[in-house]
Amino acid sequence: MQIRAEKVTQNIPGCESFTVTDLWDRNSTDGLVKSRPPRTLSQNPSFDSLTDTLVTQPANAQETARNNIIKEMVETERKYVQDLEIMQKYSTALSQANLMDQDTIHLLFPGLNKLLNFQRKFLIRLESTAELPWQEQRWGQHFLESEDEFIVYEPYCANYTNATELMLANEQNLVPLNHLINVKGELPGLLIKPIQRICKYPLLLDSLIKACSPATYPHLDELKQGSDAAKHDWKGHHLENFGELLLDDIFVVTKSDIDREYHVFLFEKIILCCKEAIAQPAKGAKGVAKNGSILKKQLAPPPLALPGGVGTPQKNTPLLLKGRIFLGNVTQAVPVPARASPSKFFYSLAISG
């Protein structure tokens, strides 16, 4: 059974033919893409009526700001999903062209299919919400209910640096597909899209909060909770999920022949590389320290204690997350020959993943 009748295709312009079986796979949203033609906000009844309202009844500044934020949220979400679909098609083309092995493609786009499936469904929720009257639009609810699902970003964000290095290392192998995505001019910008989007959500929600009034919006507290969820929980970094802390100490971590000293925490499921937070300068002073790690508050108070009471004495200085290694991604850990430094010898362990 397939949607092929001329009457149907004429009434659904741009719809790609699909079979009913395309919709059977609950783990894939590819069938939904074929059966649901894309819409623009000009086709959205909510924004059509909104435009009419603005023409006949000038809105106040707060309402205008709110409408602009919602429009931006939905339109940028739709564009983001389109970018993910482009990346998925590119990944499939790489596989079919045999330009690199499957493991390398997976490392270049880690968890992309799951990420795209989630974002397609999330987009539909945002579009549906935008069609409701303002008092019924529960934007915070989506982020609260999807909080656990945002864990699909974990492998992508954790491996983003490796993916960019892999792209550069395989640049010549990717040139044959420049007609799809230019490896120098376009691919770097696409690879960073998920990182940018996950950081954009809190900004959009905070802007929406400022444009809301408790007197006219009954879901303001829920919106604030959704904003908090988008800020703190998208990486899935909760200490209780790391397993037992096995070891922590000061180690030198070498990457690209550059040595950096980190406070390393070895858990059962993850290795965290942290540095002490630099105190913020007084207001108006130059050189504001970089901030924003979600572990800053979680790792500092109280100090972490090692099993059996062994290890480096802990201080109360807040720590900023600088790197992480998910042990589920580690494929090999082997000792390498000791090498000398100006002050000591390093006995190194090479970790591959």
From TrEMBL:
It comes from the Eukaryota. One of its GO terms (biological process) is establishment of cell polarity. This is DH domain-containing protein. Residues 65-231 form the DH domain. Pfam families: PH_10 (PF15411), RhoGEF (PF00621). GO terms for cellular component: cytoplasm; division septum; mating projection tip; nucleus. GO terms for molecular function: guanyl-nucleotide exchange factor activity.
